[in-house]
Every structure is written in structure tokens, then in C-alpha cells.
Amino acid sequence: MSDERRDQLVRTAAREFARAGFERASLNAIIRDCGLSKSSFYNILDSKLALYDLVVRDISQRLVRDLDLPAPTSFGDSAYWQTVVDVIVRLTQVLTSDDVYTDLAQMLYDTQAPDEPNEADRVLDAASDWIRELVHVGRDCGAVRADLPVSLQGELAFTMLRTFDEWSVRNLDTLPPDDLPALVDAQLAALRRLFSP
After folding, report:
1. Exposed, middle or buried by CB within 10 Å (0-12, 13-18, 19+), for 77?
2. Quick check: 109 and 169 in contact, CB under 8 A?
């Protein structure tokens, strides 16, 4: 499959999975909208879950490349919180640069996600691990309070950031673009109030 054809399949499927959810998404509609025959599709992928995993993997890999996310260990100095702010501002810019990222987020937060292990689980686990490591680094450099168990802080940080992101994705259509920076600033301020010493 050519890169152009693959991108068309990924974008079309992402839109359908985001719009309808995994369970209700129509594989036939995706195949039709891409101009594929069923036999052509099944020569490439063997199931709706395989397509779902391909979509999540391709878009999340593109997001990681576009974001150029630094390793958590690079945050460990006096500029810890400024680096966190810089990364979240960059993440917001990248996420709003292409609708396919909003589709990915809706897929990650889909309440009808596949029951069996899938790429969305892997992506969320990787994000959780990165944030937990970031909390460790923050504690080690004195930028994050140390009066709670580090495992609790890691879980709390991931849950809080996920909630901010999930709410923002659900409400993106109702937020004026000019209000987005103030919302991000308020979310970051809430995070810092909870985690700073």
C-alpha cells in the first residue's frame, strides 16, 4: 500500500472511530470511503481491531515525531516547571494543528474501546509511564513536593492530565480558539498548585 493510500485509510478510519466509537464504527463505510474493495482491505488487514491498532499506532507515532518530546530526565533542574509549561504549550499547538490528533484523542478516551489488549492501551500506558518518571525527576530536583507516596503522585498526575485533555477534546468545538491559551494556563496552574512544594 502506498504511503498516500495508507494515510487516506488511517485518516478515514480515525474519523469513523472517533465519530462512532469502536463498536459502532462501520468497517464497510471506511472501506467504501477509501475506495477499497473488501478483498483489497482484507489482503492488508484481517479485522476491524487490526485497523484500529494501525490507526492508533500511525497517528501516535506521528504525534511523537511532531512533538519531539524530551526525556523526563532533561527536566531535572531549576527550570523544571518552565519546561513542563513549554512541553504542554507545544503539545497544545501540535494537537490543534491537525484534526487527526483530535480523532486520536477521542479514540483513546472511547468508552467503547476494544475489550482485548490494543494499541490505545499501549499508548496510554506509555504516557502514564512518562508522566510517572517526570514526577520522580521533579521530586529528585525539589520541584515536586515529597509528602505523598511517589506512586500516588504519579497516578494523580496522569489522571489529572488525562482529565484535562479528555475534557478539552470533548469541548474543543465550544471553545473559542482565543480562549485556549488561558484554559491551558489555568490547567497548568492547578497542576502546579497541587504538586509544588
Report:
1. exposed
2. yes
Distance CA 69, CA 74 (A): 10
CA 113, 117, 118, 120 dihedral sign is positive
**Residue 116 and residue 140: Cα distance in Å, rounded?**
37
Convert the pLDDT of each residue in 39-62 to its tens digit.
Answer: 989 999 999 999 999 999 999 999
Q: Pick the closest to residue 91 from 120, 110, 70 (CA basis).
A: 70
Quote the pTM value.
0.88
Distance CA 50, CA 22 (A): 12
Contact call for residues 18 and 103 (beta carbons, < 8 A): yes
Contact 32, 8 (CB under 8 A): no
As a whole number of angstroms, the distance between CA 28 and CA 38 comes to 8
CA angle 125, 127, 132 (to 5 degrees): 95
CA dist 130 and 124 (Å) reads 10
The confidence band for 92, taking pLDDT boundaries of 50, 70 and 90, is confident
Q: Cβ distance 150 to 139 under 8 Å? A: yes
State the Cα–Cα distance between residues 138 and 146, nearest whole angstrom.
9
C-beta atoms surrounding 20 within 10 Å: 14
Q: Are the beta carbons of 180 and 97 closer than 8 angstroms?
A: no
